[in-house]
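Q:
Just now I want nothing more than another pair of eyes on a protein record. Here is the record:
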Amino acid sequence: MRDSRRLAALHAALRFVITNDTGAEHKAILIDVLTQALRDDETAELQQRALALARGEWQQHEIAQLTSFLHDRLAKSWQQADECVTHLAAQLHRDPQSVRDKATELGMGAAVDYHFAKTIKQAREQ
């Protein structure tokens, strides 16, 4: 979350520089620096929100997409399991661990975890 005091101070400084009779070469540099600081803060906040959203509660349409994609899948290798997780994480805009955890929670861990899939395959063969 943005620090409101920093935000207010940056805006006040920017207003001061714009309205002050500072030399033209210095004024442009100060305006650029203050504007970039505001942009950097905004970018950091957006990244934090996106990360929080990625870790947040799963929506029904996300669960449906996850279930549809993983239905009756069994990982044939660790690489296939990782590719599956990476693909879903990109589609759902979530971090891979969150996708893996949700799939396991929903009983589809064998599609995203080769060790788990191997254990299930061995149990079926016996």
